[in-house]
C-alpha cells in the first residue's frame, strides 16, 4: 500500500512519473492477461479502418494497415479505379492482341503443314486371294498313313502337313486339284457333288476348312465344268451338224462324234454351259462345295468351254482338214460364250459371298491347249466386278511335250499379259503346273513369286523337284488322259518328303515301294538333286532352293512394292541377265537381278533404276562361286557383281 503522506512530501514531477510507471505496469499486466485469453489487443473492424495512435505530442494520427494485417479484398471503387488506370488498360490490350496473334499463327501453321506435307502413301484394298498361293495335288501330296503302300495322298494327310505349309514356307492360301470323282474308265464326271472318297471325306474337309477360318488360311478348288458324262442327258451337251473336215480332240480322238462335241477329252461330252438348266446344276454343285468350307474355285479348261461349233469364215488358212494340234485352234477356243459363263459364275460367287458373310474368289485357268495363250483372250475373262478375280497364265513355263525349258527373257510375255489385263494384281504367272514341265531353273521359281500379280508356287517347286518323264501313275483312274510326253503323271509325282528313292518319304519303311506309282525313274533325281537343295543336308543356304523360296516370301510380306507395285524391266547387255524393278508409289523399290549363265557378270543399276543403294534381302548362288555378299547388308548399286546362276534382290531406299 502507498502511504499518501509519504507521497505528499515527493516533488510533483516525481509523483507524476511514479503514476505513469504504475499505469504502464497495469497496462502490461492487462496485455499479458489478454494474450493468455487469445483476444487481440486491437480489433480491426474492417479492412478500411484506420488505427488511432498517440504521437509524441499526444495527438491522434491515422495509419494504413501494416503488411502483417489480414488480407483485404478490393472494393468496387478500387476495381473501377484500376479499370480506368492507363497502365492496366494497356496491359490488357497487349495480352488480348497477343492471344489472337498466336492463335492465328498456329492456325496458319496447321494449314501450311497440311498443304505442304506429302499425303500418306496410297494403300489399295487387299483381299485374301491376293496373298501368295500354293497349288497342290491332293493325291500326290501326303498320305494319311505312312504304313500303307497303297494309300494315296488325302485331305487327312494334307492336314498333317499344314505346319510345313504355314510355318516352314509361310503360305496361307492353297489351290487343291479337283476332289470331284470321275468315272474310272472314261474319266468323265457324272455328278459334280460327288467327292472322291479315296482322297477326302466330307467331314475331314469341313474340319480342315473350319480350322482355316480360325487360323487364317483358305482353300480354293479346281472345278472343270467343260465336260461331263452322258449321264447328264443329251440336252445338256453341245450338238451341231458335223463339219466337213472334223477336227481331232485334245487327246487325238475325234472331236465330233454323233454330232456331239468331245473336247478336250474325246470320251467325254462338252457341256452346253449357255443352257440355263446346265448352269443352274453347276451353281448347285458349287454351292455344295462352298458349304464344305471352300473359299472359292479355279474354273479349269475355260478355253474349251462352249467352243465355236465350226471354224468361222475368217479362220486361219489350213485349219480345216488338220488335226487340231497341227493348226492354230484359237479360232475355235476362248469363245465369247465361255467369257459369258465365267461372268455368270462370278455373279453367283458375289451373291454367295454376301449371303455367307465371307470373302470368296474365282480364278480361271485356260487348260492344256498345247499352244501359247493369247494375252487378249486371257484378259477377256477378267473384270473387277463381273469377271474372274484372276487368271492363271502358264506362258512362262514349258509344255509337257517340250524337250526342256529354254530360258528366255520374260519381259515381253509379262508386259503383254499385264498390258492386256490392265492390272498388276489379277494374273498368276505360273512356271510349274499340272500340264507344264517342272522347271530345272530356280529363276523360274523366283519369277512365279516376284512378278506382279498373285505370287504362286506349285507343290515341290520349293525343293527343286525335277521333271522326269518316265514317272507313271499306276492306279485306276489316276493316270493322265494324255499319253506319251504330254502325260501329266510326271508333273503330279509324289511330293518329296525324304531321300528315300523307293517312296520319297511316304512310308516309314524307307525301302518299301508305293503301289500306285513307279518312282524308279526318279531315283537319281531324289538322291542327287532334291536332297542337295534341302538346307538340312549341310549345304550352304545360298544353294538351297527351299531357303530361296522362304527368303522371297519373307521379302514379299514386308514389301508393299512387291505386293501391289508395278514392274520396270532394266536393260542388260547380256542375254543371260534379267533385271527389273518393282515399285509402289512412295514405298521403297525392290530390284531383282538374275544371272542364268555359267559366268559371273556385272551390271550398273543406279542410273537407270534411279536407286543408288540397297539392302540385300535375297541371296541365291547355285553356281558355287565365291562371293562376299552378306544378307541384310547395304551395297552400292552403281556396279553390281552378279555371280553365275544367282538371284539377288535388293530393297532400295525410298
UniProtKB/TrEMBL annotation:
Any one GO CC term of the record: basolateral plasma membrane
Designated name of the protein: Glycosyl hydrolase family 13 catalytic domain-containing protein
Domain Solute carrier family 3 member 2 N-terminal: residue ranges: 68-131
Ranges of Low complexity composition bias in the record: 12-26
Source species: Macrostomum lignano
Residue stretches spanning the membrane: 93-116
BP GO terms, sorted: carbohydrate metabolic process; L-alanine import across plasma membrane; L-leucine import across plasma membrane; phenylalanine transport
Superkingdom classification of source: Eukaryota
Region (Disordered): 1-69
InterPro entries: GH, GH13_cat_dom, SLC3A2, SLC3A2_N
Ranges for domain Glycosyl hydrolase family 13 catalytic: 146-527
Record keywords: Membrane, Transmembrane, Transmembrane helix
Biological classification of the source: Eukaryota, Metazoa, Spiralia, Lophotrochozoa, Platyhelminthes
Molecular function GO terms recorded: aromatic amino acid transmembrane transporter activity; L-alanine transmembrane transporter activity; L-leucine transmembrane transporter activity
